[in-house]
């Protein structure tokens, strides 16, 4: 799974890296966040229906299906992650998977050990190159009773690679840049790009202990990527 990630790149950097146009052009971008949490609005890249070009928009993390009648319907349900194994068949995911796929800009992400008792020590994962990268995502648009639209997204997850498996059995799908266009293509075809939903190469990733302060969503600074040296610094008892 993936419940927190890092986005330190600004709008210009993201737009340049992914060759995307902000939509609208004066799109307000949240400040760099080293502890991106569900329900916040974050940048995603999708293919424009009008031009076919890549566009950068803001959307809510935690997908709200288009068929939702009331937000109370999804209260208590986790829609931040979509499992690759059921993404083409699940009622929640199958329509977005067909024609509403997106890229989610990421600098790093966190994971906690699957086993063990809390408090669990978080680990940070990033590319060995240090470059900005993209999770595979799907998005949807929901209209409330007053006619207001809310766009939202989910991160696609798959089996963990060898590196991730040391901590957790699952990981977010990381896409290679060569596959971006294929993933974003909005034309409905019988052949969905399910083959892209595979573990990323372990040798191209790095893992290190992160600061336990990441457990609190109110902490959003760069110190979260650094291992705390003491219990006082982390705000928790040592494990």
Automatic annotation (TrEMBL):
Region (Disordered): 207-239
Main EC class the enzyme belongs to: hydrolase
Protein name, entry field: Abasic site processing protein
Family according to the record: Belongs to the SOS response-associated peptidase family.
EC number(s) given by UniProt: 3.4.-.-
Top-level taxon in the UniProt lineage: Bacteria
Cytoplasm among keywords: no
Species in which this protein is naturally found: Edaphobacter paludis
Keywords linked to the UniProt accession: Covalent protein-DNA linkage, DNA damage, DNA-binding, Hydrolase, Lyase, Protease
One Pfam family in the UniProt entry: SRAP
Lineage: Bacteria, Pseudomonadati, Acidobacteriota, Terriglobia, Terriglobales
GO BP field: protein-DNA covalent cross-linking repair; proteolysis
GO MF annotations in UniProt: lyase activity; peptidase activity; single-stranded DNA binding
């Amino acid at each position: 799974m993936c419940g927190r990630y890092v986005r330190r790149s600004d709008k210009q950097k993201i737009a340049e890296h992914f060759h995307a146009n902000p939509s609208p052009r004066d799109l307000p971008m949240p400040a760099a966040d080293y502890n991106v949490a569900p329900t916040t609005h974050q940048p995603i890249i999708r293919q424009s229906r009008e031009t076919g070009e890549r566009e950068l928009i803001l959307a809510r993390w935690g997908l709200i299906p288009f068929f939702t009648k009331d937000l109370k319907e999804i209260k208590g349900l986790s829609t931040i992650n979509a499992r690759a194994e059921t993404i083409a068949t699940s009622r929640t995911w199958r329509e977005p998977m067909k024609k509403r796929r997106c890229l989610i800009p990421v600098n790093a992400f966190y994971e906690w050990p699957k086993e063990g008792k809390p408090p669990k020590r978080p680990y940070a994962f990033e590319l060995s190159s240090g470059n900005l990268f993209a999770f595979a995502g799907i998005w949807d648009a929901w209209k409330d009773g007053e006619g207001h639209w809310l766009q939202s997204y989910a991160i696609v997850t798959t089996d963990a690679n060898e590196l991730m498996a040391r901590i957790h059995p699952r990981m977010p799908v990381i896409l290679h840049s060569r596959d971006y266009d294929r993933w974003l293509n909005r034309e409905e075809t019988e052949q969905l790009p399910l083959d892209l939903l595979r573990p990323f190469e372990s040798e191209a990733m790095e893992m290190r202990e992160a600061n336990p302060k990441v457990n609190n969503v109110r902490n959003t600074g760069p110190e979260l990527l650094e291992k705390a040296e003491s219990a006082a610094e982390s705000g928790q008892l040592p494990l």
